[in-house]
Amino acid sequence: MIFLLFFQSSVFSQEKGTEWETSNFETQEIQTGDSKKSLVIKNADQIYYSEEKDSTGYTTAELYGNVYILYEEKRIFADEITIKFFDQSIKELVASGNIIIETDKNITIGKLLFLYPETKKGLIYSAETYNKPYFIRGEYFKFLGENKLIVKDTEFTNCEFQLPHYALGANKSWIYKDDMDMFFGFHIKVGEDPIFYFPFMYRSYYGTGLITALGNENGVGFFLNNTYQTKGQSYTLKLMIDHYQKTGEYLGLEHTRSDIGTLTLKTALVYDRHVKYEGTEFKNFFEEVSGEGPVSGRSLRYKMDIAFDKTLLSGDNFLGLTTSIKGSWFEPTDPYLTSQFESRRMDTFDIKKILFPEDSPSSLAGSFASGSGLGRKMDFAINSSFLGFTLSVTGNLNYNMSKTDNEENAKNRYKPDYYKNYKSSSTFPSINISRPFSLFDPIALIFDPASFGEGNSITFPFNLSTAAAYTKTKGYDTSGKLTSETINESLNLNFTSPLTFNFKPFSVSLPFGINNGNQINYNKSYSNSILSNDYKKNTYTFTFNSPFNFAIDEKAYKIAFNFPVSTSYTLNKQKTAFSTSTNTSSLDASATYNSKSTSLGGTAQFDFFKEYEYLLTSLTTNITYSSSEKYGENIIDDIQKGKTKNYTYTASLSFLKSSFSLSTSSNLSDNTAKESRKGPLNLNFSTSLIPNITIQDSFSYDRFLKENKSNNLSINSSIATRIFITDNFWINSLSFNTSWNRSYQDYKSNYLSYSFSMNFNYTKFWQFSLVSSGSNNKLYYYTKKVDESIRRDFWKDLYKSVKLWSIEDRQNTYFKMSSFGFNIKHDLHKWMLELSSTFTPKIERNGAFYFESSFLFKLTLTELPSLNPTEVKKTFGQQ
After folding, report:
1. What pLDDT score was predicted for residue 209?
2. Of 77, 97, 282, 446, whose Cβ has the fewest other Cβ atoms within 10 Å?
3. From residue 611, how far is each of 131, 504, 659, 743 by CA, in Å?
4. What mean pLDDT comes out for the span 568-580?
5. Residue 372 near residue 403, CB atoms below 8 Å
């Protein structure tokens, strides 16, 4: 029921056609029913009311001069308002002159208003409104109920100027609140000039609406991408409908659901347009076949990609049982579909691909040069856990896609390349089961943890874990014949018992551990489906770990020691049941042996003055040793034993924000060449003592040849904080990096590289950045290593490299500029203008010098960044 207001007799005279001066006017509110539908007159210079009905049965109230009324949630201001009543109900409200309609959320102004309260319809001419963050203007706003709006000659902008710097517009707009928007004659304007026009635009509030993108590539011609996306509480949907001038039509669907588990569906259908070159033009490809008549060069291709995952049991039962299933299926008809169509798609408008198509035609065949690749694939998995056990059962079937001449596999039998899914491998079943056991902690059984004091503890847990696996795999050739069959069985037991003491500031740990593993491999190989080899291989591994860690960690200093210890034994045994080879015993003997490996080490760390940044001193030393060898009745000489023995030594010191490190290694293995036994001696130095500058040097000495090997020096300077030169000029960032690499053994390999970057502002509206990099790979020309007649001066050569105005000097210097870039940004009130340029010097074999250039011009609407045009690049010829 709609409750309306009428004017009380105490306000209006009973005499027909009476006027009142309202100098003593008081706010009047007259209503019946719900107060939410009230009409309140807050102000008017004059009020005229007549109870005499017109020919249609209406009575009229007229308000003049500075009129201000409240209706529902609206505050309406106007020069004059006429209200028509029928049986004490308001049927029409007409306002004119300086109209302002305010609500708590927006404000609308106009020149003429028609409002029909019962139907919630209305019309306002020369309308403007602010609906945060946008200003909206139109020749008229037509309201069709509370949720529908029609606007003629619409403009949307968040620029507050009466003539905005930019605007989105449409000749006519249909806006359905929380449902959809439609626009005819959609355009983007900068100032008063349109820069983009599209005849129709649609937007759905339940999805993206149909987004149309237009592009151009020399390989596929003009193409049109149409994308629709939407999502609900438990699903997403993406629909793609494309047209490519030279390759055909594409229909794609991507869909996910979470209400039935997790389902992902990706499918595509392609209707090819086969074309060929005639000169420089692409034309439809038709081929006359004797007795068949003309046949179009079109074919239908598809792909299907489905994945499903669902949890069946979540563990809320007495066994704590959880169970989930997974499965997937991928089915392609040929390997080109993705690269030909899907990788080219655009979901947004791309001005680059329209104005600057690729200079070189794209390959119509896509990226599948080898002629074979991933084909059909199916897999599944069942995962479960119960009573602490974890169980998984998986399987898969894989196919390779390759070319075939069999016309039965052709989607278009007049096209020469056909493809078929050939069985490649299968795995079924693959079973894994594991279970960890926390046995007991004797310390927790004997002592109360609180008795050690706050922050102190002693732990000695005994833990055991076990894992078993079984996997069966088969391999096939391209004809589908069995080529191999492998069964892997494994059983692993792992026992750990880490003893840990933590009594501030002391800590000690002994993480003792034993691992026992047994793996059995059954291997069969076939030739033309006939068994050629059948053997069994058993591998047994025993590993023992018992490192020792000790630390004292005080506020001012820290002392720590670490001694890792690890020993591993492996037994390998092979038994051949059948082989086409005449000497199976030699095969078994070479694969039957035992091996052992040992790893030892020690690390000591001393930290002092921890609370001081510059005085912090740290000394660390480390030594490691590792060895391994094979043994057994089949190992008869040193070569078969393969003994290895390696040492590494490291020492480092840091002080005053500087660090020094010394390291070397030795390889004393039996089969190591003499010149490789002594590793190089490496000395490294690094300091950042000087603010904003880091110096690093790495020196290497050849211990075998007893001579210097190499030295690498780098200096990096960086200022990342703002530095004001004047009030209107400041540097945002500045960096310079140079690296000098010297070889004492090959002086011709010495080189120098450098880079420079600077970012600065001139007022807040202009920002500039400059980057440059280069290198010199012929430093020996500045030394006495070369004849004086061809020797050069380092600084003169460097100066020539920066003489951009002289091509001859740049060609005749060994300092080669690798890249040069300059960028300008200008703030244009809501817009950001950006011009970037990069130059990469190139020298042809004939000595010709030129810049390979890249230019980017970008105009960004800062508050609507999705409208940015993409990068436009162009390569210019020789300069």
Report:
1. 61
2. 446
3. 56, 18, 18, 41
4. 88
5. yes
- Cβ count near 133 (within 10 Å): 9
Q: What mean pLDDT do residues 384-413 have?
A: 78
Q: Give the residue among 780, 769, 757, 774 at the shortest CA–CA distance from 837.
A: 769
Query: 241: how many CB neighbours lie within 10 A of its CB?
Result: 16
Residue 829: CB atoms within 10 A of its CB come to 13
Residues 845, 553: Cα–Cα separation, whole Å: 64
CB contact at 8 A, 304 and 267: yes
Burial tier of 793 (Cβ tally within 10 Å: 0-12, 13-18, 19+): exposed
pTM over 0.70: no
Instruction: Report, in this order, helix, strand and coil percent for the chain, each rounded to 5.
Output: 5, 60, 30
Residue-wise pLDDT tens digits, 47-68: 888 778 887 788 888 899 999 9
Per-residue tokens: 572: 């390998």
d(CA 97, CA 65): 10
Whole-number Å distance between alpha carbons of 655 and 37:
80
The CB density around residue 398, as the number of other CB atoms within 10 Å, is 19
Residues composing the chain: 879
pLDDT digit string, tens, across residues 176-229: 776 677 888 888 887 777 777 778 777 666 666 667 777 776 667 778 888 888
Integer Cα distance of 654 and 48 in angstroms: 94
CA dist 338 and 374 (Å) reads 12
Domain 18-210 belongs to what architecture? Sandwich (2.60)
User: How far apart are alpha carbons 813 and 252 in whole angstroms?
Assistant: 56
CA distance 450 to 804: 77
362: helix, coil or strand? coil
Q: Give the tokens for residue 147.
A: 């949720």
* Strand boundaries in 405-481, DSSP class E: 418-440, 457-459, 462-476
Please, are residues 267 and 242 in contact by the beta-carbon 8 Å criterion?
no
How distant is the alpha carbon of residue 860 from its chain centre? 22
**Taking residues 639-649, what's their average pLDDT?**
89
CA distance linking residue 249 with residue 299, whole number of Å: 11
Query: By three-state DSSP, how is residue 587 classified?
Result: helix
C-alpha torsion sign, points 82, 84, 89, 90: negative
Joined tokens for residue 633: 């009745």
Residue 98 tokens, joined: 């300086």
Here the tokens at position 580 are 């086409």
Amino acid at 808: E
Domain boundaries, the chain: 18-210, 211-420, 706-714+725-879
Residues β-bridged to residue 829: none
Q: ω before 461 within 30° of 0 (cis)?
A: no
Strand-pairing partners, residue 240, are: 227, 252
Q: Identify the weakest region by mean pLDDT among 88-92, 188-192, 354-358, 792-796.
A: 354-358
The Cα–Cα gap between 769 and 787 comes to: 42
d(Cα 410, Cα 403) in Å, to the nearest integer?
10
- The reported pLDDT for the residue numbered 134 is 72
> What distance in Å separates the CA atoms of residue 655 and residue 685, rounded to the nearest whole number?
11
Do 38 and 74 meet the contact criterion of CB atoms below 8 Å apart? no
Q: And the tokens for 462?
A: 């005994």
Strands 39-43 and 658-667: unpaired
DSSP annotation of 704: T
Give the three-state DSSP class for 866.
helix
Distance CA(484)–CA(529), nearest Å, equals 9
Cα–Cα nearest to 270, from 246, 247, 297: 247
Q: Tell me which H or E stretch contains 62.
A: strand 59-71
Is 61 within 8 Å of 82 (Cβ atoms)? Answer: yes
Specify the DSSP class assigned to residue 868.
P
Q: How far apart are CA 193 and CA 173, in angstroms?
A: 20
Cα gap 534→584, rounded to integer Å: 10
Strands (E), 274-319: 275-278, 281-284, 286-289, 293-296, 300-314
